[in-house]
Amino acid sequence: MSAPLIEARGLGKSYPKVHRSSDRLRALGRLLFSGVDNDRISVLRDVNLEVCRGESLGLIGENGAGKSTLLKLITGVLTPSTGSVNVNGEFGALLELGAGFHPEYSGRDNIAMSAALHGLEGAELRRRLPEIIAFADIGRYIDEPVKHYSSGMVVRLGFAVIAALKPDLLITDEVLAVGDESFQKKCVQWMKDYLAGGGTLILVSHSMYHVQKLCRHACWLREGEVAMAGDVFDVTQAYLAYHERKSAPQPNQREATRGNLEFSVLDVALNDVDSETPLLLDSGETLKVRARIRSRDGRVPSFAIGVVRADGTPVYGVSTDMDGCVPQRLGENEYACELEFADLALLPGAYSVRVHPMDPEGVRLFDTLERGVVVRGATREFGMVRLAHRWTHARSGGNAS
Ligand SMILES: Nc1ncnc2c1ncn2[C@@H]1O[C@H](COP(=O)(O)OP(=O)(O)OP(=O)(O)O)[C@@H](O)[C@H]1O
């Protein structure tokens, strides 16, 4: 098997703690006299990461979690304080906006300089230049100094150069957030083609939509450490659920904040009853969930409905978006939907049904309204749901319950 393209072992980064100028002097003193400075703040700790050729990894996490620091360690812009990182191939990186561009030179000159740094020059560059300029699509600004560019134009120029170079490995930090919608689409399409052609991608993004669309794996950094790594859906869903828990208002705060939300749940009825008292049901009966959602600007929300056990363990979740269903429009800002679970497979126990509005893209959750269900039944089966089953090695007529 070939060596991973990127291999990080016990990677960490720390900086001296500096609050005031006197601290700087003290830190310098410690460094001069003892050769070490122990008074440091660690921003990245013990990161172990492998990225193989052809892989696509989304790097996610809150502001300040250490994502850019990790990218800068991978690209060699920063040196590790602990551990090591190896990159076994050519890479192209779009890190800080405009880094590498000369502000006084035109876009055209900057393309030539950046491309030359990567070995694309002379007749080959002249042949490829129209294609690069067309990708950037910034009109007459291509001959203006880069210092006159908007941040979106700088990213367009940077991406156009990278796209022409087609590196083994592409490392990008939030580029998609800066461009407008049509440029985002163009970049996403380019990245999809690049991946289909065997390219390797590390993408930092706050958009779970883009991460899910482009990456097969994800790594979630939290306060400088890897909180979770693995399949992109598992990691992004855990990350969104973490945010949901973090931003969920306490029940008594809910009323106060609901009105400000883009989407909020107005009410939820179980088997036509809207009540805070749990609904009593027998295993195998039908459970009908009817919910109304208010949409502040009238956009059609997606309804996400989940069932959790009383301790919060998820049992099942589904959304109108996943099933390709369109909620019913009740008024300019109001939508409804009804979901039916026939032959309820829940085993006896206490559960909650949770209803959340999601944005039309089915990515962000907004509000939560919960109703209790108590399922009754006489069975010795254990767990949360009854799975269809049959014993294939035993003869019937025994003592099966
Ligand atoms: N030169 C530096 N000196 C001291 N602390 C730094 C330095 N550079 C970054 N940090 C700190 O390191 C932490 C991680 O920063 P980093 O930019 O990697 O986060 P991030 O996950 O990329 O955040 P964002 O999503 O906001 O871009 C932050 O707390 C930041 O303040």
From TrEMBL:
GO terms for molecular function: ATP binding. InterPro entries: AAA+_ATPase, ABC_transporter-like_ATP-bd, ABC_transpr_TagH-like, Bact_Polysacc_Export_ATP-bd, P-loop_NTPase, Wzt_C. Residues 23-248 form the ABC transporter domain. It comes from the Bacteria. Keywords: ATP-binding, Nucleotide-binding, Transport. Belongs to the ABC transporter superfamily. This is ABC transporter ATP-binding protein. It comes from Dokdonella soli.
